[in-house]
Amino acid sequence: MKQVLIAGITGAIGHALAEQLLEQDPELTIVGLCRDPSSADFRQEYAGRVMLIPWDAAATESAVGVAGQLRELLPETTGLDMVIYAAGILHGPGMTPEKRLEDLDAQAFAHSFAVNATGFAMLVQAISPWLRHRRFKRILAVSAKVGSISDNGFGGWYAYRSSKAALNMLVRNLSIELPRKYRPLACVAVHPGTTMSPLSKPFARSLAQLKVHEPGETAENILDVAEALTENDNGTFLSWDGSAIPW
Ligand SMILES: NC(=O)c1ccc[n+]([C@@H]2O[C@H](COP(=O)([O-])OP(=O)(O)OC[C@H]3O[C@@H](n4cnc5c(N)ncnc54)[C@H](OP(=O)(O)O)[C@@H]3O)[C@@H](O)[C@H]2O)c1
Fold first, then answer.
1. What's the CATH number where 30 sits?
2. Global pTM value
3. What gap in Å lies between CA 242 and CA 42, rounded to an integer?
4. Do strands 3-7 and 82-85 pair parallel, antiparallel, or not at all (unpaired)?
5. 3 state SS for 159-206
6. How far apart are the C-alpha atoms of 46 and 198, rounded to whole Å?
7. Each residue's pLDDT tens digit, 57-113
8. What is the tally of structural domains in the chain?
9. SS3 for 37?
10. 202 lines ligand 1 (CB under 6 A)
11. Residue bearing the CA closest to ligand 1, atom 42
């Protein structure tokens, strides 16, 4: 594995993934996508191996811009060995996870879908020329267990849950179409486990009874899952410990 693209490299999980990959393999280079590259902070020794490209999952045409810039940094023929979609949103300005029907807001829904689901599909479309090589490719969408329809016994968090369910469907669709052109590959959805991050921080009190991982632990778990992937895993929804999650 030599060239890895991480979307959401400024996030707690995305950044920890990048640092571990860079530490594990001195020959590996990373293409990192984020809204503001100046906010991505890497140790001096790694800085030369991280290429940052500005990208906003909620902006139409942003993925096309990524492909344009990527072409200048990495020839299509060199290819990407792994793509990790670690961008996501649960709360933000004008967005709070909904507890009841009255809380639903169309703009918050649209934004959640744009960042948590559509952004992934448009990115895979844009970078598909880098998937043409014949080495095994890993495409991981960082999803969430709360996006499982069959596991939902609790309700609430309408926009987040449904946008993650949409992300899962995109993974499943891509797992059917991509192998026709780009095999060998595995395209999977991965639940990272509850992780201390700006995304989970407002819920720290309700997380008290759950096992909460540090971002470094989560990155290690996700990379173990990634390492173990084979073509047989294509189209699955996996938890951080490698177990299968029902859709
Ligand atoms: N933490 C958990 O407990 C947990 C549990 C289950 C699933 N997850 C999933 O894990 C993934 C990573 O979350 P995290 O915990 O690392 O959260 P985080 O630290 O808040 O990171 C979120 C990432 O998403 C990016 N992002 C947000 N809006 C964006 C936009 N419009 N365009 C491009 N990027 C955007 C952020 O980039 P900026 O720097 O530009 O804001 C940041 O890189 C998410 O998909 C989340 O749903 C997390």
1. 3.40.50.720
2. 0.98
3. 28
4. parallel
5. HHHHHHHHHHHHHHHHHHHHHHHHCCEEEEEEECCCECCCCCHHHHHH
6. 24
7. 999 999 999 999 999 999 999 999 999 999 999 999 989 999 999 999 999 999 999
8. 1
9. helix
10. no
11. 11
